[in-house]
Predict the structure.
Amino acid sequence: MTAPAPAPADIFAKRESEVRSYCRNWPAAFDTAQGARIHDRDGRSWLDFFAGAGSLNYGHNNPALKQALIDYISRDGVTLGLDMHTEAKRMFLESFERRILQPRNMDHKMMFTGPTGTNAVEAALKLARKAKGRQSVVSFTNAFHGMSLGSLAVTGNAFKRAGAGIPLVHGTPMPYDDYLDGKTPDFLWFERLLEGSGSGLNRPAAVIVETVQGEGGVNVARAEWLRALAELCKRHDILLIVDDIQMGCGRTGAFFSFEEAGIEPDIITLSKSIGGYGLPMALTLFRPELDIWEPAEHNGTFRGNNPAFVTATAALDTYWSDDRLTKQTLTHAERVEAALAAICAEHQDAGARYRGRGLVWGLTFADKERAAAVCARAYDLGLLLETSGAESEVVKLLPPLTITPDELDEGLAILTRAVAESAS
Amino acid sequence: MTAPAPAPADIFAKRESEVRSYCRNWPAAFDTAQGARIHDRDGRSWLDFFAGAGSLNYGHNNPALKQALIDYISRDGVTLGLDMHTEAKRMFLESFERRILQPRNMDHKMMFTGPTGTNAVEAALKLARKAKGRQSVVSFTNAFHGMSLGSLAVTGNAFKRAGAGIPLVHGTPMPYDDYLDGKTPDFLWFERLLEGSGSGLNRPAAVIVETVQGEGGVNVARAEWLRALAELCKRHDILLIVDDIQMGCGRTGAFFSFEEAGIEPDIITLSKSIGGYGLPMALTLFRPELDIWEPAEHNGTFRGNNPAFVTATAALDTYWSDDRLTKQTLTHAERVEAALAAICAEHQDAGARYRGRGLVWGLTFADKERAAAVCARAYDLGLLLETSGAESEVVKLLPPLTITPDELDEGLAILTRAVAESAS
Amino acid sequence: MTAPAPAPADIFAKRESEVRSYCRNWPAAFDTAQGARIHDRDGRSWLDFFAGAGSLNYGHNNPALKQALIDYISRDGVTLGLDMHTEAKRMFLESFERRILQPRNMDHKMMFTGPTGTNAVEAALKLARKAKGRQSVVSFTNAFHGMSLGSLAVTGNAFKRAGAGIPLVHGTPMPYDDYLDGKTPDFLWFERLLEGSGSGLNRPAAVIVETVQGEGGVNVARAEWLRALAELCKRHDILLIVDDIQMGCGRTGAFFSFEEAGIEPDIITLSKSIGGYGLPMALTLFRPELDIWEPAEHNGTFRGNNPAFVTATAALDTYWSDDRLTKQTLTHAERVEAALAAICAEHQDAGARYRGRGLVWGLTFADKERAAAVCARAYDLGLLLETSGAESEVVKLLPPLTITPDELDEGLAILTRAVAESAS
Amino acid sequence: MTAPAPAPADIFAKRESEVRSYCRNWPAAFDTAQGARIHDRDGRSWLDFFAGAGSLNYGHNNPALKQALIDYISRDGVTLGLDMHTEAKRMFLESFERRILQPRNMDHKMMFTGPTGTNAVEAALKLARKAKGRQSVVSFTNAFHGMSLGSLAVTGNAFKRAGAGIPLVHGTPMPYDDYLDGKTPDFLWFERLLEGSGSGLNRPAAVIVETVQGEGGVNVARAEWLRALAELCKRHDILLIVDDIQMGCGRTGAFFSFEEAGIEPDIITLSKSIGGYGLPMALTLFRPELDIWEPAEHNGTFRGNNPAFVTATAALDTYWSDDRLTKQTLTHAERVEAALAAICAEHQDAGARYRGRGLVWGLTFADKERAAAVCARAYDLGLLLETSGAESEVVKLLPPLTITPDELDEGLAILTRAVAESAS
C-alpha cells in the first residue's frame, strides 16, 4: 500500500462514531512507527509512552518479529485457523511451554479465545462459574476487565457500567489494596462476609484481580496483599483469576506480574502484548483440573489468528529465553522512578505523587485536572502519554519495555517539562 | 519463519484445552493455504468449503490483499492504533464509503469494536438499549450471535447458553421464518405480544436477526419475511439489528445480505470477511441519529487492527468497485444448487433436502447423524466441510466466493461421493 | 366498636396513598355487610357481584362461619400461631383432608404461607425451582399471579410489571388458550421451543396457569387445552402449577377449578376464599415427593392466622361435605348465562359478547370503554361490579356462590339496565 | 367452636409440609392464650417470651382489643374491604394520625399492602426504585426483610437466600453496626464506594435497615450509627427505608424504634404488632412527595383486612394516647437487663454476653450450640424462648410489652434456671 492521496480531513468525523476517544487528544493521523516512535504523514513524530495501552511491550514493528511475520505471510502460512491445529500454533504452544510454563513449574492448560482481552475474561468467568457451580464473582474497586457484558459486570468504572443498558449483576466489588484508609486490615470486610452465613454475600465462584490496575489509575497491589488474597481464596474454595492482560508479558519485570508475589493463580488471562507485534491475540490459562470444557462450549472465529502466533512465538524466543529483558525492565524502572521522584520533589506544592512498578507508573496531582493538562502539553512536545483512573486524574507511563535508555531519558525529560509547563 | 522441526505430536493434547473442536474432526496440522486450498506439512491438501466459518470469502491468502499487507508491514505502517486516526483507517473509511455506503444511499456511521463478531454484537446491543431505554431484545430460534454474555443471551443453542454459568436473561426468542408449521401466519405471536398490554412481554429495545442462520443450520429467511419484520419493528418503535457477520461481505451475492429484501436495518454488525484476509476486524454500523455514544463509552484494545484495515481496503477496492463478484457468486450458486438437487434426487430415500442462497447452502438427511458422516468422509476425500445446526444435522457449504468453477465442481463432486459413501 | 363521630371527609385523601383504586369508582365508605349485600353508614346498600375479588365465595359475614369465629375468639383461642401446632390448625388439616383431598384421591401436602395469594405463589415458584434445579418459569398472556417480585415476573400486565422498578426476568410468556387466531394449533410454539435444542428458551422448571384468568379478563381455558398442557408438562418433565387462588374454592363449581378437566397439578395455590370469611389465609399444595423443603426454608409471620383456620374449617364443613354447593353454582351459572345471552342479543350492535364458567363471567363490548361505563352505572343503581382485563375492557361478574336466586336475578336485572343505560 | 375430638396425632406430619419449624422445638398443640401465657389442650401452659415473633406486643387476646373485635364481628362490620373506604379503615387512619403521626410532626402517607411484612417491604422497594429510577438497594449483614423475592434479595441469611432458586441480585450488603472489628470507622467502605466513580457499586435507590436486627441475632445499632446513616443517605440522594416491622409498635420503648436516634426515614414499613391482636396487617409509610404511585400500581386482596383495622385502632387508642406504655417498657427493660447481667456474671466462663434495647434482648455463649439448649430447657420449664442469628446462636427475649412485672420475673427466673441447666 502506498500512502493515499490527501483525504477530506473529516472522513473520521463524517463516518466514524462519536465513541472514538484517543483521537480527540491526539488529533494527528498516524502512519508509521518503529520501536518507541510513531510518525504522522507530515513527518512529525512522537515518543510513545503509551505503547498501545500496553500491547506493544516490544515496541512498534519490532524487527525480529516483523521478519518472522513477513516470512510467514510470504510463504502463505495459514492466516485464520479457528481452532484447527496449525504449525504456527504448535510452535507457539511449544515455545510458551518451554520459555514460560516449564521454567515456572506451571502445568496450566491454554485456551485460545477470541483475540481480545474481554473475550479471554469472558471465558475465564464462564469456566470459574462452571467449575464451582456458583454465579457470583468478586472484583475490586477501580478494576477494568473489559466491555462485553460479562467483563463489564466486574469492571468498576460507573460511566462504562452505565453503558451496558441493563443492570449489571452477579458481581460484588471489594476494596482493592490501599483503597480504604490505610488502617483497616486487609480483607477484613471480605473475610467477614465469607465467614458469616448471614452476610448477604452471594458466595463467589471466583475473585478476579489485576496486580496493578492500569486503567483504574496505576494502583499497585503489594505482594503481601496478593498473597493474602490468594490464601483467602484457597481457604474459602474460591478460584483466583489474575487478569494479566495489561500487566503480563513483562510489563512489571517478570513475565507474569504475579511472580513477584509468589502466588500461582488458578486462572490467568493474557492478551495485549502476548501477540508481540500488536496483532490481536488472547489466551486464558487454567490449572489442568479446571479443564472441564466440553468441545466448542466456548468459541470464536478469530481465536486462531495465526500471524499473531508467529509474532508471539518470535517474541517469546527473542525475549524470554533468558532474563535479560526482565533485568533491563527493572533497570529502566529505576530511571523512571528517579525522574518521577524529582518531579514530585519539585512540584510538592502541587501535591505531586507517584507510584508504580516495572514499567508502569502513575503521577498524580492535588488538582485532578492537571493530569490531562500534562498529557496535552506532552503531546505538543512530542510525547504520547495517557491519563488513567476513574476521573482521568493519573498520568500513566507505559513505555515499550524495549525502549533505549536514551529514549527513556528523552521521554522523561519531556514529561518533566510538560509538568512544569502545565501549571495553571 | 521456516517450518519447525517435527514437534511432539501431542503438544496440542498436552497443553491446549479440551474446548477445542474443529481439530477433532480435522486432525491434520495445517500449514499453508492459497485460495480455496489448504495444506498440511506433509503435502496433503484439501479443498476448503468452510472458508474460516465464512471469514475467507476472498480465499486464503488472496494475492492482491497479501501484497498490500506485506507492503504495509514492510514500510512499518502502524500496526495497533486503538482508536487513533491512522492513514490505514482513513483509507478504509473512504473506501467503505465510496464502495459500499454511497452506492446504497446509506448514511450509517461506523464504529470499530474489538475485532471479533461478538464484540460488534455487544456494541450493537448496548447502543440499542441506550437509544430506547429498554432492556429486552428479541432474537430468533436457532440464532447465533456470539459467546460473550451479551451476545450469548440472544443466541439460541441450549448447550452454548448453558456454558454461561448464569441465567441468561433480557432476551426473548421468537420463531424464525419457517420454524413453526408453515401455516401459522408470520409474526402472529410476536405482534400479538407487542399489541397486548397484558402479554407479559418486556417491551424490546431491538430485534436482532440473521438473514440466513449459518450456525443455526442454514435457515434462510424469505425476503418478504424480512420485510414484514422490518415493517413490524418500525410500527412498534423497535430497532432492527441485522447481524451480517457471516452472511455479509458478499456471501449471499450482494455486499449486505439484506439488500435482496430491500430493507435498511438501523444497526448492522460486520466481522469475519470484512478484514478480507482473515485478520480480526469487526464493525458496527448504525443510523447517524443513533450515534449517541459518549467518547470511550465502549472500547477495546485491538479495535484499531490496522493490518486488517489495509487488507479490508484492498478487498473493497478489488472486489466491490463493480458487480462482478456478486454476479459470479450468483452464477456459482446455480452450480451448487444443481449439484445439491442432483444429490437430493439420488438420495430421496434418505430424505435428503437442501436449502441456501448465494454461496451458503445446507444439506440434510432424515437421519440427523448422516451430516457428520458426510463431513468425515469428505475430509478423507480431500474436502473440508462442516456441519451446523443445533444437532449438527446440516452439512454446510461455505466455499470462498473467489473459488474457480473447476474447484467448485471438484468440491461438489467430492461432496457427491461423500454422500454416497457415507450411507450406513 | 360503635360507629365513630363523623370524620373529616378527606382523611383518606389526606393520609392514604394515591395507590388506592377501588375506592375511586366506589366512593362510599362501607360499614357493614351480610351475604350478598354491603352497606354504607347512611343506609345505602349494594348487591355485591364482586365478592372481595373472589374472596367471599360464601358471602359477607356468613352466619355459620361468624358463629365459629366469635366462639373461637371468645374462648381465647390462639390467634397468631406462626407454624406451631394448634388445635385450630389441626381441625383445618383434618377437615381439608376429609372434605377435599381424600374424596379426590389427592396425596398433596400442605404448606401455610404468609396469608396472601402472592406469598403462596412465591412459595410455589421457589419449590418448583428447587425441585427442578432450573430458574425459568413459563406463564401465560394476561396471567395475574401477584405483586411481589417473584409473582410479578410471571404476571402479564405491562403496567403492573413496570412497577417493579427492575427488569423482570426468569419468566417466559406463552399464548393462553384462544389468545392467537383460533387457527394455530395449541402449544405449537411452546412445544417447538421445548423440542428444539437451538430454540433459545431457557428450559423451564414449571408452568404456572390459571384455569380461568380472572384479572386478565375472564379468559376461560377449555378443558382439552388444560389437559394438553398437563400432558405437555409431563412429557417434558416440567412441573404444572395451577394458581387456583381466585378460581378455586368452588368458584367454577367443583372445589378445584381444574377438576372439570380431569388433571392433577403438581402444585396448587389457594388463597382468597379458602379462609371462608374474608380473613387472610393462603396455602400451597404439592405432591408429597416435592416436599423437599428444609425446615424454615420459607416462612412468614402470619402463616398461622388461626381465626382464618377456624372459619376455613367451618366453611369446609358447611359447604363441602356434599355436592350441594357445586350443584347450586352450576344452576346459578345457567341463570347468569341466560341473562348474559339476553343482553348480548339485545346489544348485538354494540358487539356485546360474554364468556364464563361457574360463577365467573365476563361481558365485553366493541367499545372497550363501555365496560367501565356499565360498572359505573351499576354502582349508581346499587350493584358492585368491577372491570377486568389489561385494558379494563371486561365487565366481570363474581357474585358470592351463596347468593339466593332472587338476589342473583336482582343483580342481573340491574346489570341489564346498566348496560342499556350506559350506551353513549 | 368447641375443641375437637382427639385427632390422630400425626395429621401434622402426614399433611403439613416439612417446611414447618417452630413446632419442631415446641411439639405441643397450643389451643388458647391470654396475655403472656399460652396453653395446650391438656392444661399445660407456658409463659411466652416470643410473642408471635414480635407480633403480640400487647399480649395474646388482649381484652380491650378482643371486645372491639367481637363487637365489630357481631355487628357484621365489613370483613374484607380491599382498598375500598370503610368506616373501620377511616377510624384507623384517624387514630394513627392523631396518636402517632401528628405528635411526631410526620406528614407521611400510608399505604395498606397485602397484610404481611414482606408485602410491605416489596412495596417499599418498588416505590424507592420508581422514585429514584435506580435498581440497586443497599442492605446490611444479617438483615431480615422477608421471603418473597424482592425482600429476600435484601436479606442476609445464606440458607434462606438459597431457597430462592434463582440468583438474588440488585442488592448489596454493607456491614451493620459493629459487624467488623470495632475499629474501622463506620461507613468508611460504604462512603468510599459512593464517592468513587470507579468503585463498581451500582448506585443504590435506597438503603433498607432495621434499628435492631431481631432475626439476625438481636444486633443493636447505636443511635449515632443510625444518624450517620441517615446523614449519608441524605448527602448521596439515597432513600432511607427503616423496616420497623419487628421493632416498631413500641418494642424498643417509643412507638417507632428510630425515634431514639432522632431520625426520620423516607419510608417505613410496619406489620406484626400494628394489628394489635395478631391479625395480619401491614403498612408502608412514606414522605408525601414519594407518593408517586399510580392507582393500583401495587395491590393485594387482603390489604383491607378490616378486623385488623379495628384491633389496630383499639391498640392505638388504648396504649398510645399517652406515654405510659413507653415508660413501662423502659422500666421492664431495666429488669431484663439486670437479670441478663446476673446470668452473664454467673456464666462468665461460658462466655455469656447480652445485648438489647427496650424489650428485645439477646443472650449468647462462647459455645454457639448453647442457645438452642437453653431454649429447649426453657420450654420444658414452661417458657417459650426462641433462638435467632444466622447460626441460631442467640437466645432472643421478646416478651409482650404488656407483661406484668411478676410474669417478667417469673420468665427471667426460668431463663436463669434454663441457662444453668443447659450447661453440657
